[in-house]
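Structure ticket #2291
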Amino acid sequence: MKSLAAILFSAGFFTAGAAHATNGYFAHGYGVKSLGIGGVGIALPQDALASATNPAGLGLVGDRIDFGLTWFKPDRDISVSGSANPALNKTYDGNDTDNFFIPEFGYNRVVSPDFTLGVSVYGNGGMNTDYKHGIPYFNGSGRKTGIDYAQLIVAPAATWKISPRNILGVSLNLAYQRFEAKGLQNFDNPFFTAAPGHVTDRGHDNSYGAGLRVGWIGQVSDAVTLGATYQTKTYMSKFDKYKGLFAEHGDIDIPANYGVGIAIEATPQLTLAADVQRILYSDVDSIGNRSFSNLFAGNALGSSRGPGFGWRDVTVAKLGVSYAFSNALTLRAGYDRVTGPIRKSETLFNVLAPGVVQDHLTLGATWTLPNQSELSFFYAHAFDETVRGSGSIPPGFGGGEADLRMDQNSLGVAYGWKL
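Resolution: structure written out below.
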């Protein structure tokens, strides 16, 4: 696994801060076609990235290869007000790094009429911040503050047609994570951490692990397809360089999630689709544990019950429409809505990971070329969202409130062809 991650990294399949428009830090969809239809894909597979959403989908896409590249631009900042120190009451810009490029790849092969093998390669991220002039709550010297946390998933998958209208699929999610923290010197001491010297400015650290995703797709009628999928928690090795920051001595697993979907062929040209997904962020201590209330209760950073980001579980609703304008041109549009993972009382620590956007609008298209290969595009906008702090800055830090704000734009292109 380590050598595979190194090869993909050097080939450009994994970039710092990799992310699409985000539901927490999960992408709103996987594959350019899905990204253009609101991230819908549980019951509507469209390309060889399908196993990232529902591995059973590879049983319907045929022999094909897909490559894609997305440009992602988040805009994030924090506003502090009501502090006992008036000098702290201002807006801090977290966009010193603000452009990211994220590749994707998928391959699928029909081995027999009832059996397929494929692989999807994709990333998660969104937990990236870069405050050029620092955040005084985290260091008092004006040093650059922020984190860079991203994931690469290589998901080999197999599907079985168990009846003419039902397909089961399973993927092995081989995961690689990379993390770096900068400018957290105020917390790198024995009062706050169980492992001084392992909180900040240690460079990038790597983590490896695996999990499973299973899925089903059933064509209940000629016009209606249903789907369901479940991904286990992906158990990861620990970030040894940051064992004084993350709970359980540097452990940060990838949360379990599950969802259901429906696709309706309203006319031969028009398809309507919807997904509902649940992401269990709170089941991972480094993500779900409360931050400062936990810290001041005697649970040091990095300890077995140490602070996290205080994220809640979220529910994601996705709606999409696809219209075959002609034999050569398919148009797509979609909407994605996620409940907010960040509590109003947890905004200060989430200065490092302000995953607050909730509403996404997407557009997409595929042009089928004369040689039957496909050129696809998408654009997504995550609307400006603010989480206003309430009891967010402890009295020992001067009190007041921290408000998190973010919006996002992304644009992607993919090229695919049937084998």
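Closing remark: The domain at 2-418 is CATH 2.40.160.60 (Porin).
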